Here is the input.
Amino acid sequence: MTAAAEHRTLPIPEGLAGDRVDAALARMFGLSRTRAAELIAEGLVLIDGAGVSKSDRVMPGSLLEVTIPSAVDPLEVVPEVVEGIKIVHDDDAIVVIDKPVGVAVHPSPGWTGPTVVGHLKAAGFRISTSGAKEREGIVQRLDVGTSGVMVIAKSEYAYSVLKNAFRNRTPRKIYHALVQGHPDPLEGTVDAPIGRHPKHDYKMAVLADSKGGRHSVTHYETLEAHRFASLLEVHLETGRTHQIRVHMSALKHPCVGDLTYGADPTLAKRVGLERQWLHAVRLGFEHPESGEYVEYESAYPEDLRHALDVIRDAH
Here is the structure.
């Protein structure tokens, strides 16, 4: 990611006569040779108006033009109003939102799309400054490809109370998942450690503790059973990355549309899904200030509702 670039034009000094372009550029602008070579390769360096290669030699008096992009911190929170984020509840301590698909909770390396924290900043919400700079106020997360209800701390006190609650697993996190086939038994618990996939670092996998797997427990019950898929209510006891997706895939009943974890692409196309059918429907916890138990809900978004209707109508 780059922001505004710096443009510089300077004559080549006598002292650099005959030097390679990358060496001259590095000395004139205080860059590393590697960075100088990158700028040349990107076509951002001209001598007397013409492109050059890094091994060309410079002549004194020639005009060197260089464009140096300003690097942007990939973890910087960029204020940006995100269409589709709904405010479910807002008070002095917390803000509860309904997160749409395609939105990350906070910035991370490699992610250039919209974020929840960027939206809240743009919309004028003051959120807690506790936590890493890019994750201020964040006490729980939802995957980019998962929609639904989540809470963000606004006060420092709320952050500390909620962070502790999630660490101790006291909030009730209820998801609905449409999975392929019919789990047997119809109601059960998956207790299998999860860690980073040994071959694909964008995925998680069921791994033995000795291989880096962390304790992970998922409870599920079947709400509806249809010809091609079942609608489950899932209660998360732990909150590992991709936990429901990994556990359902391990049962050989991946979430419909979840191609990363083995879902059938034909079925995904048939129901019109471009992401996993997984939605955070309810979140309950003790309010950090009043101590009362509060619960918030989120309705299925249009793409999931449509996919479920197709499954219900399939004969």
About this structure: The first strand starts at residue 2 and ends at 11. The CA atoms of residues 74 and 109 lie 6 Å apart. DSSP finds seven helices and 15 strands in the chain.
